[in-house]
Design goal:
The chain is mainly alpha-helical. The protein has a domain of 220 residues. Helices cover 72% and strands 3% of the residues. It has a two-stranded antiparallel sheet.
Length: 378
């Protein structure tokens, strides 16, 4: 018998349950069933039908109570339509900013297969550089151009000192390199610009705009949120066009697929890396400015990368549309969750909602909404 026939015979002889054992919900049901059976046996309830009914009634009431506790606050929230629309708009505007930060991760990951742990610190360093230059009396526009130049120079240095020595290395090695880069960049920025909170020297619009009136409720949107979201939207659209419509963008996608194949057709890998890290640095600069505008540029700004991580997991590490859609989902979802269940759970839902949502996606769809499922054949 040939190996192919043997393999086919084994495949045909598989149990119908073999396809279920790879499903997360199958094992969840098995665990629940086992706990139920063991519980009934330990409590001696397997011989008492009335106790069986009591337990089932208790479980049923508990399930109904849980569903009511989850859905009732959301229903009450949407009954206040004006407030619901205002909260949703605020969440979506914040989601645009999450998308902008996540795009920096996506760009570098697509071009090098590297998860850039230092992207959050790049946001901080770029914003500190811009504000620091203005403190020396340099006009805002010139300081912005010089900050862009600094991030391009940073990309050249990273390629020269790190990336060119790590071609075709394992991803864990690349990841560890970016951890070291993050610590260095944070300390370097602290040494040059200091650790004090710095105000963004931009005359951004303040106050709120009466966007819509529903009944007795005026739906208001903060002008600062609108300005930040507009900036983020322009950057997102520009990056999407750059990646999908330009020659350099196509070269970036080729490098992402296979470094050696890209080199064999004449694509300069080092040039591509400099370009993509430069673009990621420029994205980090604008993200730092819009995020630092409300409360100033401070070192906690680097923690914004923690919110970008669940956005990447939900949207897919290699997908620009995924980063956009996932950012909107996270921004919208955390605002709705905070308003709906914040009082019941003691508040602070915005701090962990995105991570819980990412865990759900890791179980149901590990590659993310727009990510490609990778199948490795041995």
């Amino acid at each position: 018998m040939t190996a192919e026939a043997s393999t086919a015979g084994e495949a045909g002889a598989r149990s119908p349950l073999s396809g279920l054992t790879g499903k997360w919900w199958f094992w969840a049901a098995v665990i629940v069933a086992v706990f139920a059976i063991v519980g009934l046996d330990v409590w001696g309830l397997d011989e008492d039908a009335e106790n069986h009914k009591a337990i089932l009634s208790f479980l049923g009431d508990g399930l109904v109570g849980f569903l009511k506790a989850v859905t009732e606050p959301v229903a009450l929230f949407w009954l206040k339509l004006g407030f619901a629309i205002e909260t949703s708009m605020t969440g979506l505007l914040v989601g645009v900013l999450y998308s902008l930060v996540a795009l920096g991760f996506v760009l570098i990951y697509k071009a090098s297969g590297m998860f850039n742990y230092s992207q959050g610190v790049m946001v901080l360093f770029a914003a500190l550089t811009f504000v620091g230059l203005t403190e020396y009396g340099i006009p805002v526009i010139l300081a912005l151009v010089m900050a862009v130049g600094v991030m391009i120079l940073f990309a050249i240095v990273v390629e020269f000192l790190i990336l060119r020595h790590l071609v075709n290395q394992e991803q864990i090695i690349l990841f560890m390199a970016t951890i070291g880069l993050a610590f260095f960049l944070e300390g370097f920025g602290d040494t040059i610009w200091g650790s004090n909170v710095k105000k963004i020297p931009l005359d951004l619009p303040s106050g709120a705009m009466d966007w819509l009136t529903i009944g007795d409720w005026n739906v208001q949107v903060q002008w600062l949120d609108i300005s930040a979201a507009a900036t983020g939207a322009v950057m997102v659209v520009a990056l999407a066009v750059f990646f999908n419509k330009t020659r350099i963008g196509r070269a970036l996608r080729a490098v992402a697929d296979d470094h050696q194949a890209a080199l064999s057709v004449g694509i300069n890998l080092r040039t591509i890396w400099i370009i993509v890290w430069s673009v990621a640095g420029i994205v980090a600069l604008f993200a730092g400015i819009v995020w630092g505008a409300p409360s100033g540029v401070q070192f906690s700004l680097s923690l914004i990368a923690l919110k970008a991580l669940p956005v990447l997991l939900i949207g897919g590490f290699e997908s620009i549309p995924g980063a956009i859609v996932a950012g909107l989902i996270v921004g919208f979802g955390e605002k709705i969750a905070e308003v709906s269940w914040g009082d019941s759970l003691g508040g602070g839902i915005e701090n962990w909602f995105a991570f819980m949502l990412a865990m759900v996606f890791l179980v149901i769809r590990p590659q993310g909404l727009f990510g490609e499922k990778i199948i490795e054949r041995v």
